[in-house]
Amino acid sequence: MTGVSIADKTPGSHGESPLSGDGASTGRLGDRLFGGAAIGAGAVVVGLVTLIGVFLLSQAIPSLMKNEANFLTSTEWSVGGDHPRFGILRLLWVTVLSSLLALTIAVPIGIAVALFITNYAPKWLSKPAASTVDLLAAVPSIIFGLWGLRVFGPRTEGIQNFLREKAGWFPLFKETTVGSFTTIFLAGLVLAIMILPIITALSREVFAQTPTTHKEGALALGATKWEMIRTAVLPFGKPGVISAAMLGLGRALGETVAVMILISSLAQGTDFSFSFFDGGETFASKIALGAGEFDTPQKTGAYIAAGLVLFILTFIVNAIARIVIERRKAFTE
Amino acid sequence: MTAITNGLPRDRMLSEPRDLDLRGKSGSRALKNSVATAVMWAAFAIAVIPLVWILLTVAVKGGHLILDSTWWTNSQQGITARREGGGAVHAIQGTLIQGLVTALISVPIGVLTAVYLVEYGRGRFARIVSFMVDILTGVPSIVAGLFIYAVFITTFGFTRAGIFVCLSLTLLMIPVVVRSTEEMLKLVPNELREAAYALGVPKWKTIFSVVLPTAFSGIITGVLLGLARVMGETAPLLILGPYTKAIATDLFGGNMATLPTMINQDRDQAVTLPAYDRIWAAALTLILLILLLNLLGRLAGRFSKV
C-alpha cells in the first residue's frame, strides 16, 4: 500500500537469484524486442527522474537570476513585477518544524504499534490490526485536511492555549498573530497521523524478521518480554526503523493539501517567528496556493525554485533511508 | 527458585510450560514489563482512534446525501452553495476516467520495469533503475504536478487539461506498480522458468506466458492499490486540473471535475449551507471508492498462485 518495501532487498524465494542475464536469451527477434522493451521501461524511469531535476532547474534559474533578495535567507515572497524579491527561509522553517513535530510523535507510536502487531497482539488480532493501520494510509490527504480543520482542530484548542500560556516564554511556544487553532502545531499533529502507517508498516516488516534464535536466546536467559524486545528485537530492527522514519519524514515534507487546509496564511510582511503557534506555508502548500499565480514564466519560475528545493530535500531524506537499509543488508548477509 | 513451581501441580507444569510462574524476577523488572505491555496496547488504540474518528465523521455527515439517488445521477451544474440538491456524478466520472487513463499509461511501464529488474537487470544500470524507482516513490505529489506544468504548460504552451493530471499521477503510480510487481515476480519459483527453458521456450515467451500469468493476481493487487493511492491525490489537480460543475469527459481540453477538487472547491463554506454537507458526501464517496479498490486488491491477492 505504501509502495515501499524492504522485501525487494532480500534474495529470491530460494535464496538464489533468477537465471542471470542473457544466458537464457535465444537472441531471436522476440527476445531482443522484449528485452529491449524491458530495458526501455527502466530507462524511462531513470529518464523521468533526471528530467524532473533538469526541468525544474532550468525553469527556476531565470527567476532566481532576477531575484533581488537572497533566495536562501529572505523571508519575503513577492514574485511578480520587475523587482521580484523572494526567499525560502520561512517556507523551510514551517516545513521542517511541522515535519519534525510529526516525526517526534509518529516514530515512538509507530514503533510501539509495530511491536504490538509483531510481538504482543494475540494471533487472531495481529493480522486485522495490521490491515487496520494500513487502511489509515488509504485515507486521501484532503480528507485528513477537512477532518483536521472541521473536527479535530477545534478540539486541540485547549492544549494549544495551555502551551501558549504555560510555555510561552520558550521561543517555540510563543504567542503569535495567529489566535486560532490553525497553526503549525495542528499541522504537525495531523501529519503525525498521516505518516504513522508508513512508519508502522516498515518497522513491522523488520521486527518480524528478527531471528527467532535471538528472541528465544534472550527468553532462555531469563529476560522478560520487554527485556527480550529491548535486547533482541530493537537492536536488530534499528536500521529498518531509521529508514522507516526517514521515509515518513519524506512524506511529511512533501504533504500538500492537508497542510494547505490546516495552516492559516500570514499577511505579507508579518514578522518571522520560531513558534509552533504561527501560521505560514510549507514549500508544498505555498506552491499549491500559488497555482493561480502561474501566469508568467517569472512567477512560475519562483514557485518552481521552491519546488526544486523541496525535491532536493526529499531526495536527500529518501537517499539516506535507502543507504541505511543497504548497509544493514550488507551487515546481515 | 521456589517460585517456579509455586502452587502448580507438577504434571500440569510439565505439560504446559507456558504457565511457568516467573514471579522470581525482581519487582521492578516485572513492573517494567507490564508497563511496556500496557504501552503497546495503548499505542495501538491511539493508532486506531483517528481512523475510526475520520470514518465515522465522514459517514455521519455525508451519509444521508449519498443515499439519495440524485447524488449518483446529477451533476452540480446550476447548483450554488446556497441551494440544496445536485449530485456528484461529474466528479465521480472525472476521477474514474483520470484513474483509468493513469493506469493505462503507468501499468505497462511499471510492469516492464519490474520485469527488467527481476528477469534482466544485472549490474550498474539495474542498480540505478532500482534507486530511481525509490527516488520516484519519494517525489512529493506537488512536485510531480509542478514538473508536468513546467514541461507542458510553461515550455510547450499547452493549456491545463485532464490529460496532464493523468501524466502527473502516472509519475506517482509507476513506483507503486514497479515495487509490487517486482515482489510478485520474485516469488515465482525458478523451477517454472527452468522447465520452460528446458522445453526450448525462448526467454521472452517464458516471461510472457509463464512468469507473468503466474504472478498475475499479485500484479493486479499492486495495480489496484496504486490506483487507490492516485485517485485520492489532490495536489497535482490543484495545479493542473481546474474544477467545473458540469459533466466533462474531454481529457484534452477544458476543465474536468474530480472528487478531490469537488471537496476542495467548497471546503471553506459555512456550516449552515447545503454545500457544507456536500463536501462530506463527496469525501464519503471518495473514501468508499478507495476502500472498494483496496478491498478488490486484497481479494485479488487471495487468488494468488504463488
Instruction: Give the overall form of chain B.
Output: globular
Biggest interface, CB < 8 A:
A-B, 105 and 111 residues
Count of runs of 4 or more consecutive helical residues of chain B: 13
Main sheet characteristics of chain B: none
- Strand proportion of chain B, as a percent range, falls in under 5%
Query: What characterizes the major β-sheet of chain A?
Result: 2 strands, antiparallel
Mean pLDDT of chain A: 85
CATH class type of the largest domain in chain B: Mainly Alpha
Q: Any idea what the CATH architecture of the largest domain in chain B is? A: Orthogonal Bundle
The appropriate CATH architecture of chain A is: Orthogonal Bundle
CATH superfamily of the largest domain in chain B: MetI-like
CATH topology of the largest domain in chain B: MetI-like fold
Tell me the distance between the termini of chain A: 27 Å
Tell me the β content of chain A.
Answer: under 5%
| First and last CA, distance of chain B | 50 Å
Q: Please identify which CATH superfamily of chain A we are dealing with.
A: MetI-like
Number of domains of chain A: 1
Q: Poorly predicted ranges of chain A (pLDDT <50, ≥5 residues)?
A: 1-22
Let me know the number of strands of chain B: 0
- Percent helix of chain A, as a range, is 55-70%
Write up this protein:
The complex is a heterodimer of chains A (333) and B (306). With 333 residues, chain A is mainly α. Helices cover 67% and strands 1% of the residues of chain A. Chain A is built from 11 helices and 2 strands. Chain A has helices at 29-66, 89-120, 123-138, 141-155, 157-166, 184-208, 212-220, 225-254, 257-262, 283-289, 297-332; strands spanning 77-78, 85-86. In chain A, β1 and β2 form a beta hairpin. In chain A, α1 (29-66) crosses α11 and α10 runs antiparallel to α11. Chain B folds into 2 domains: 2-63, no CATH class; 89-302, MetI-like (MetI-like fold, Orthogonal Bundle). Chain B contains 13 helices and no strands. Chain B has helices at residues 10-15, 27-66, 70-73, 89-120, 123-138, 141-155, 162-187, 190-198, 203-214, 216-231, 235-240, 259-265, 274-302. Chains A and B meet through α1, α2, α3, α4 and α6 of A and α2, α4, α5, α6 and α7 of B. Chain B: The chain crosses the membrane at residues 35-56, 96-117, 129-152, 158-178, 207-228, 279-297. Chain B: Its main location: membrane.
